[in-house]
Batch of 2 targets.
Target 1
Amino acid sequence: FQGIVITPLLLLLFLGSSSSVPFTSIFSQLFMTVVVPLIIGQIVRRYIKDWLERKKPPFGAISSCVLLMIIYTTFCDTFANPNIDLDKFSLIIIVFIIFSVQMSFMFLTFLFSTRNNSTFTPADTVAIVFCSTHKSLTLGIPMLKIVFAGYEYLSLISVPLLIYHPAQILLGSLLVPTIKSWMVSRQKALKLTRQPKAPVKV
């Protein structure tokens, strides 16, 4: 929601042209697109929770397929647009910037959650590193389409998000073994330090 305010300001700063955003329309559309389905899902879940626990539908596979379809259709819409003017060098620069931003965010959140006076456990740190830097297409693309409805360069604006989401999946997959070994060793070290010392017999 902060992006609704920050994005036009950034466009004004970098492009030097005026821009206006219909906040009432955007918030109402976002509410109907994001919040209402979430509320309906939570209400329905209360009544069919027992049935879901018995049947165990493959929601994980379904959500992965839906997400894959969203990524695929968004990629198709973006690069099939004749107005998109993105050369290979610019695309490589964007990929490099996004990977750098992601690595910086993950490194900063790791430092923040492991500082000396931190009360976070190693498992908390892992959750913070991955969750706080996460940005999903399922929310980002609808927000872009609502905020920039009718804008001819919408496909170009979508490119960083299209790269960010697959990049975070790739980075997460590469970092999982390292993060897992760190978490296990850290948990073992904490257990050893918390064990009571045996009394010394004189």
Target 2
Amino acid sequence: AFLKLPSDSFKYLGWCDIEEHDVRGNQLRCPRVREGPSEEELFFRREEHTLKKRKQVTDREKWEKRMQENWENCAELNLSFQDLGDLYQLENFKRILRRLIRVEKLWLVDNSLTDLSAIRLPRCRELNVNKNHFTSFKQLPKIPQIQHLSLAENNIMTLSGISDFRHAPLESLILKRNPCEFQERYRQLVFSSLPNLKMLDGIPKLPEDCSPPEIRFFYKMCTIL
């Protein structure tokens, strides 16, 4: 039999549940936010020993925990690499995202995310969702103040829905290693849909990115005398 470390009984304990500290969520740059399995699931895993006997939580204690989490006052947060392997993990993750009403810079890299369309991030200026499983711009959160958006290494097939960001102050966009990158006249189509955009995939807006298709085609023609 394997010997369990003294810390084993704490592996599903949230940082808010640890006594005698006053650390708040907005003081953490890269927190782990996954909730542990339910008691029923732990029983089937034969890991019920990892949970302390739970007492009934009062409304006051719930409110104190919410105040300690303090996600509403986060301005910059990295929630990447959360390993959201189960549905209850993802639901807790989204619960936290819904509370980020003041976040301005947010990293959600490599979380196997597929749809955050129900999430609104009203003050977010910089969002990095690289290495997820988004297939459409429609699956992104509502980000009306976005300036820098990175979507590298997702599975976005077409540019359909990109015009939803037309009225946002979006200045730079990264779509590297998405299937839509191979679409004909890719750069021209992106810039025509996003008039405020200054940089795409790390390359500034070029004169040929603004040329109508027929003019670009004309320049490629050769004249035989």
